[in-house]
Design a protein that fits this description.
The structure is a single chain. This protein is α/β, with parallel strands linked by helices. The chain folds into 2 domains: 158 residues, Quinone Oxidoreductase, Chain A, domain 1; 154 residues, Rossmann fold, CATH 3.40.50. The protein is 25% helix and 24% strand. Strands 3, 4, 5, 6, 7, 14 and 15 form a 7-stranded mixed sheet that branches. A 6-stranded parallel sheet has the order 10-9-8-11-12-13, with helices on both faces. It has a two-stranded antiparallel sheet with strand order 1-2. Helix 10 links the parallel strand 14 and strand 15. The chain starts with 6 loop residues before the first strand and ends with a strand. The protein binds NADP nicotinamide-adenine-dinucleotide phosphate. The site of NADP nicotinamide-adenine-dinucleotide phosphate (NAP) has 29 residues, from helix 2, helix 3, helix 7 and helix 10.
Length: 348
């Protein structure tokens, strides 16, 4: 395969204040790197836009490594091996990993993936479309599976509330809770999203949270949608949305804190409710979740999810942008709720 003479990369041009702007990113041309001994060159087919990337743009990250100005944006990719000096990988095979927002990436073939390490995993296109390795069979899938089943242990008949319910993680978490026999209520920002999760994914109820201008107003809608109170809260958003849900926990409720997207794009963080009263009175458990703690068990989730996709119990939806130059726009759109299901950027 003849390679082009440039590798286009997306770099951080400025640190965003609040919601990122397209001018916070730049497209940089670099030469395509030559793989050294033991290395391979990967041509990106899809890039992934994930909320965690936003946190890396801060001058001080609360988790993970800070990205410096001018550095290539750290992010996940699935692509094809186009050159290989590593006997473990053949040209033509597909791999997924934290190989960043660029058209071509070098990997040393390492498989270490914890804590944002750039280790790669092989992807078999015979099992599922390769881009599923960035979504339902990738870190979002592993997150939904273990944050729900391991951290919350939902039981049939229990009420499960999922925020950001039409996104990559939330749409899967809700479907998994339905498979478990739960009553599932999802929150999302548009009618198209609430219709999708109730009509197509089988959620029992959906709340368009944009109709409410405060936690107190949202709590009224939550009470109406969850007459038996909430046994499991799968929290993808934090902020005022979580504060409109937490006061309605049931006794012995489990809350898993998966994301904080309401706060991540705010220059000034919202003040939150004091959790002691509703956690104590309800004997509730609130647990933080980071997907990398489950990397060693990821195949367990992938195999179960792949089986449920095949049996029709899990439906997959993607929002796909095209061309590396549109990656920042797609990322910003995802942060603003422009995606339904997994946000991807297709390059090939
Ligand atoms: N802890 C972990 O290890 C881990 C791993 C993966 C993901 N996550 C977290 O899980 C959450 C979902 O991730 P994802 O990849 O599945 O993303 P996603 O839900 O597919 O996309 C992000 C969604 O966030 C919602 N959103 C954005 N700003 C919001 C705001 N101010 N208030 C309420 N909702 C807002 C939007 O949905 P609406 O249009 O419905 O508002 C948007 O579609 C994120 O918080 C992410 O950081 C955590």
């Amino acid at each position: 395969m003849t390679l082009p003479n440039r590798n286009r990369q997306i770099v951080l041009a400025a640190r965003p204040e609040g919601m990122p702007k397209e001018s916070d990113f730049a497209v940089k041309d670099s030469p395509i790197p030559e793989p050294g001994p033991g290395e391979l060159l990967v041509r990106a087919h899809y890039l992934s836009a994930d909320p965690f990337q936003r946190m890396r743009f801060e001058a001080q990250a609360n988790y993970g490594k800070v990205l410096q100005l001018g550095e290539v944006i750290r992010g996940r990719m699935v692509g094809e091996v186009v050159r290989s000096n590593n006997p473990g990988y053949k040209v033509g095979e597909f791999v997924e990993g934290m190989l960043n927002w660029q058209e071509y990436a070098i990997s040393d073939g390492s498989t270490a993936r914890a804590e944002y390490a750039p280790g790669i995993a092989k992807v078999d296109p015979a099992i599922a479309p390769i881009q599923y390795s960035l979504g339902v069979l990738g870190f979002p899938g592993v997150t939904a599976y273990f944050a729900l089943f391991d951290c919350c242990e939902p039981k049939p008949g229990e009420t499960v509330v999922v925020s950001s319910a039409a996104g990559a993680v939330g749409s899967l978490a809700g479907q998994l809770a339905k498979i478990q026999g739960c009553r599932v209520v999802g929150l999302a920002s548009t009618k198209e999203k609430t219709d999708w999760i109730t009509r197509d994914l089988g959620f029992d109820a959906a709340i368009n949270y944009t109709k409410y201008d405060s936690s107190e107003a949202l709590l009224g809608a939550i009470r109406a949608a969850c007459p038996e109170r909430i046994n499991v809260f799968f929290d993808n958003t934090g902020g005022w949305i979580a504060d409109g849900i937490l006061p309605h926990l049931a006794k012995n409720a489990r809350v898993v804190v998966v994301g904080n997207i309401v706060q991540n794009n705010r220059a000034v963080k919202e003040k939150r409710l004091d959790p002691n009263s509703y956690i104590m009175v309800n004997r509730a458990t609130m647990r933080g979740f980071i997907v990398y703690d489950y990397e060693h068990r990821a195949d367990e989730a992938r195999h179960a999810i792949a089986r449920w996709i095949k049996s029709g119990h899990i439906k997959v939806r993607e929002t796909v942008a095209h061309g590396i130059e549109n990656t920042p726009k797609a990322f910003i759109s995802m942060l603003n709720g422009g995606n339904i299901g997994k946000q991807l950027i297709k390059l090939v």
